[in-house]
């Protein structure tokens, strides 16, 4: 059976759109899969089955399936490195060989290619893994080295959820999964809601998920069942780093903000999942930093994002940061705080706040809602290239920071933290769009100043603030910013 996939339309850049949109010829063995995964508790899983919204839109009733899956890879994990998942699934009397290639994913919403072949027995058929469906990266792989690796066994209850969205029809398969991943002696529970788009726009998945998250704790989570198996075998295999947006001087402000916001949201999701899993303190620090950078970038846009359009996002971020940033700062010096933080984070995930924030922010970004209420000047600013907009912003922020004043009044430096964070966020993510001498050095020195501004006041801290303000003020890059 042919696995040829012929793209008929160019793929839009992830920096411009949050979801890949491809027009393709789809052979019988391949499907385009768009879904969102939501981690839940057992109590929430039971509540979802009886949720009024799903009951109202349930067109098929719930069907119960027992699914047993064997995953395969080489001893070196070469399929995983190529972002390929290969499995055999037993579904009742059906035996299906499936290969999935990972696409783009954010806030738990992913789009990827899925190839399925019916088998007569539960034995991997290597002859199916040929043609254009087999990744070029694996062209030289000896397929005979592919061996069983781990299993996922779970009960799935699924239903067809359908409704009208404007003039369009939406059909989504809702699946309630409960079981476990087993890799050698290691196990992890599977307890999740999967929403897979069958008909309609990807935005409908987020809308449905957000409505459910308003009353139930749902955690958008883009780690697949296969990734969980690999993580059990190697705790470091779950990649926390998403590809950073490639911004340059010719990137329009709207596209730069969209790309960065999606990146920070997606990264915060992966950090939240891994911190939930292993409780490593550094992950919580990075999670808070991602949220703080999203807050700083959002507040820097001026008329390109009228305050009314960003009010809900800023309020939600402020609430999260108000609770978690002081805890992270306290944990820098207090082992007891660090030790208790993981349990507090698990309690956070048992509330609706994190899921609501994640899903509503995804909807806001997908709709590009910061652009909808702005005037002509705001539209011009949103279309401005970073080469013209960003130096002007940084110059204005540097001038307003008044570092010479805080050399005399170091006790008041904390009042400038929002401004320092805005400068830092753009220096961090848009350095490819800036022509500044010693930019990396400035970023490092400003970070030290930010850390000092967050410390409790003492004579030692005040002296350090003065010296660090002088260091930043005298740097070549800062002097250049003041002239912009």
UniProtKB/TrEMBL annotation:
Source domain of life: Bacteria
Q: Which SMART domains match?
A: CYTH
Q: Which InterPro entries match?
A: CYTH-like_dom_sf (IPR033469), CYTH_domain (IPR023577), YgiF (IPR039013)
**Classification via Gene3D superfamilies:** Hypothetical Protein Pfu-838710-001
Q: Which residues form the CYTH domain?
A: 31-236
Query: Can you provide one Gene Ontology molecular function annotated for this UniProt record?
Result: inorganic triphosphate phosphatase activity
Q: Which CDD domains match?
A: CYTH-like_Pase_CHAD
Q: Under what name is this protein listed?
A: CYTH domain-containing protein
């Amino acid at each position: 059976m042919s696995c040829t996939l012929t793209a008929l339309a160019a793929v839009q850049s992830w920096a411009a759109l949050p979801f890949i949109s491809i027009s393709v010829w789809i052979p019988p063995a391949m499907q385009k899969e768009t879904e969102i995964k939501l981690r839940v508790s057992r109590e929430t899983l039971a509540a979802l089955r009886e949720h009024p919204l799903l009951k109202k839109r349930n067109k098929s009733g719930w069907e119960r399936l027992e699914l047993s899956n064997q995953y395969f890879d080489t001893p070196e994990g070469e399929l995983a490195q190529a972002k390929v998942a290969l499995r055999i699934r037993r579904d009742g009397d059906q035996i299906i060989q499936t290969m999935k290639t990972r696409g783009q994913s954010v806030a738990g919403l992913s789009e990827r290619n899925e190839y399925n072949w019916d088998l007569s027995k539960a034995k991997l058929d290597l002859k199916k893994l040929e043609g254009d469906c087999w990744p070029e990266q694996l062209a030289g792989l000896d397929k005979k080295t592919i061996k069983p690796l781990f299993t996922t066994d779970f009960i799935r209850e699924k239903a067809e959820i359908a409704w009208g969205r404007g003039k369009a029809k939406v059909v989504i398969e809702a699946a309630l999964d409960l079981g476990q991943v087993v890799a050698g002696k290691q196990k992890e529970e599977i307890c999740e809601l999967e929403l897979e788009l069958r008909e309609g726009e990807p935005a409908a998945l987020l809308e449905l998920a957000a409505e459910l998250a308003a009353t139930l704790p749902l955690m958008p989570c883009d780690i697949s069942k296969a990734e969980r198996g690999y993580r059990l075998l190697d705790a470091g295999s779950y990649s926390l780093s998403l590809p950073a947006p490639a911004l340059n001087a010719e990137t329009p402000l709207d596209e730069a903000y969209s790309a960065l916001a999606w990146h920070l949201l997606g990264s915060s999701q992966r950090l939240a999942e891994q911190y939930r899993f292993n409780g490593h303190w550094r992950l919580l620090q990075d999670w808070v930093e991602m949220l703080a950078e999203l807050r700083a970038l959002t507040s820097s846009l001026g008329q390109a994002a009228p305050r009314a359009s960003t009010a809900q996002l800023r309020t939600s971020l402020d609430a999260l940061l108000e609770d978690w940033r002081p805890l992270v700062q306290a944990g820098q010096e207090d082992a007891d705080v660090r030790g208790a933080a993981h349990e507090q984070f698990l309690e956070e995930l048992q509330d609706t706040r994190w899921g609501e924030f994640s899903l509503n922010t995804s909807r806001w970004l997908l709709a590009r809602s910061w652009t909808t209420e702005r005037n002509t000047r705001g539209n011009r600013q949103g279309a401005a290239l970073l080469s013209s907009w960003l130096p002007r912003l940084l110059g204005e922020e540097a001038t307003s920071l008044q570092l010479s004043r805080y050399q005399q009044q170091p006790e008041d430096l904390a009042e400038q933290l929002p401004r320092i964070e805005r400068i830092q966020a753009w220096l961090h993510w848009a350095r490819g769009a800036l022509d500044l001498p010693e930019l990396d050095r400035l970023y490092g020195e400003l970070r030290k100043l930010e850390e000092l501004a967050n410390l409790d006041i003492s004579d030692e801290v005040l002296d350090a603030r003065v010296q660090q303000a002088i260091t930043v003020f005298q740097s070549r890059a800062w002097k250049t910013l003041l002239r912009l």
